[in-house]
Each structure stands twice: as C-alpha cells, then as structure tokens.
Amino acid sequence: MSIATLLPLAIKISLTLAVLGLGLKASASDALYLFRRPNQLLRAVLSMDVIVPLIAIGLAAGFVVDAPVKIALVTLALAPLPATFYKKPLKAGGKVSYTVGLFVAITLIAVVFIPFALNMLSRATGIAMQMSSSAVWALVFWSLLVPLVVGLVIHQFAATFAERAAKPVAQVADVLLLVAIIPILFRVLPVVWSLVGNGTVLIMIVMAVLALATGHLLGGPDPEDRTVLALASSVRHPGIAIAIAHLNFPDQKLAAAAVVLYVLVSAIVSAPYIKWVAGHHPKGLGQVSPRSA
User: Fold this and answer.
1) In angstroms, rounded to a whole number, what is the distance separating the alpha carbons of residues 217 and 133?
2) From the centroid of its chain, how far is CA 72?
3) CB–CB of 232/81 below 8 Å?
4) Residue 46: which of 30, 34, 36 has the closest Cα?
5) Of 51, 57, 135, 244, which is the most buried if we count CB atoms within 10 A?
6) pTM surpassing 0.85?
7) CB contact set of 116 (below 8 Å; sequence gap of 6+)
8) What is the C-alpha R_g of the chain?
9) pLDDT at residue 285 is higher than 50
C-alpha cells in the first residue's frame, strides 16, 4: 500500500475516531437535545444553513473574481460540521448537550439540505450543480453517524468505561490526523500560497467573522450556546466541500486549495473570538459545563 493511499485512510480513521470520542462522552439525551428544543434548533439552522450560505454566495458574487475561490466559498457554506468541530466549543466552555445535539441535528439535516441547496444554486446561477442524496448520505452515514452512534451505545451500556476511553480515543485521533495532514499540507501549501495576495484571504476573513457573528447573535441568551453556534457557523467540513467541488467542477484544481486556505483562516479568526469569550466568561474556558436536562 502506497503513501498516497495510506494518508487519506489515516485521515478517515482519525476523523472516525474523533466522532467516536465525542459519542463516548455523550448520552442519547444529549443527541436529541436540540430536537426537544425546536426554537434553538430553528436558530441554529437559520444561522448555519441559511444566513452563512447567503453570506458566502454574496461574497462570491460581489467580490471574488477567481472561479476556484467562488467554488470553495459556496461549497464550504453547504458542508456540514467537521468531525473535529466539537473540541473548540467544549474547550471554550460549551455544554456537551448543546454541542452534541447541534452536531447530530445539523448532520442529519445535511442529508436533505445539501442536495436541495445545490438544486437552488443551479437554478439561480444556470450552472449544472448536483450531488445525489445517496452520495451525501453515504458521506454523512459512514464518517459521522456510525461512529457517533457506536459511541453513544457504548456510553449507554458502559458509561464509566466510555468516559475513561473518550480521552485516549481522541488523543489517538489527534496524533493520526497530525501525522497524515502534515505531508498533505506541505504538498498543497505552494498552491494555497498562490491565492494569497489577491484579496482572497481578506474575503475569507470577512466570511469567517460574519459567520462567527451570525452564530453568536442567534445562539440565544445562554453565552455557552452562543459560543458553540458561533464556532459551528464558522467552521465547515473541508472533506465534503472538496467532494462537492470535485463532483461539480472537476477541472478546477485550485478549489481544493482554496478550501484548505479557508480552514486555516477560520481557525486563526476563531482564536481571538475564543479569547474574547474567555474574558467575558472566564469560568467557562477550558471546562465542560454541566449537561442541561
């Protein structure tokens, strides 16, 4: 087996373990948290699946010249949460219940949302864009839902073991991801660098900031929930974004590099936001708040 085959496999295993680690920390009640709170669920969907995509489309249509960057912005806006999303909100004091509930809800909604949104974009732009529900379901099912459900089941029947196992599983996921991602980053960085200096970074900063602000404003009265939704609105799933871009625009090789660039930009932009949250709610930073009923 070649390195080219091993690296993507290592990333897939890492992301699967990351979701498994989240599931090991959570209960079935956590997974259904937002479905039992429709107002909070509606605000989350409005932020992540309506306003942020509209922001991305507006920036792509009004300010971006390069086609690969336009594709990256739009496909990222359509992609659900990445497997590693939950770590920043929990470190910033987010509740396990809200974080897991948001992860589950947005993941399930993505199965319907992505094909629908692509169809709407196709009609609006006149560009043929598609990704079948079955293709979206396969991505979501195997990379997100299966490991999450496995973790939840283990937690349900062996809670003590699950709590102990969650941390080492997450650590193994981190190590695998680091080992796999470094060679890939070195390979794509020259391409990513070619996008720097033409206004692309500024546009991506604007998108990340507006997404953070949207989630923060729609997160509700609880400061912990606002932090989680802000970070969730800003981060997207690069793997699914690249898959959508490759399926619909196979000739645009720079689109994947632009996706990687946004992931880096959003991570940098979210750092001062997390510090700001810590300054206003110092007790929450670095601790996991108790679960809500």
Assistant:
1) 31
2) 14
3) yes
4) 34
5) 244
6) no
7) none
8) 18
9) no
The per-type count for the chain, helices as H runs and strands as E runs, is 14, 0
Instruction: Tell me how far CA of residue 25 lies from CA of 30, 40, 72, 184, 229, in angstroms.
Output: 10, 22, 33, 30, 19
- Mind listing the pLDDT tens digit for each residue in 225-282? 999 999 999 988 887 788 788 878 888 878 888 888 898 899 899 999 988 887 776 5
User: How far from 30 is each of 74, 145, 218, CA to CA, in Å?
Assistant: 30, 14, 20
Return the beta strands (E) in 169-251 as ranges: none
Tokens of 254: 């720079």
Burial class (CB in 10 A: 0-12, 13-18, 19+), 145: middle
Q: How many CB atoms lie within 10 A of CB 237?
A: 28
Domains of the chain: 3-276 (1.20.1530.20)
Question: pLDDT, tens digit, for every residue of 162-179?
Answer: 999 998 998 898 888 788
Tokens representing 22 are 């989240």
Q: What's the CA gap between 252 and 237, in Å, rounded?
A: 19
> Tokens 């794509």 belong to which residue?
188
Inter-helix orientation angle 133-140/96-125, to 10° = 160
Which tokens belong to 258? Answer: 């632009």
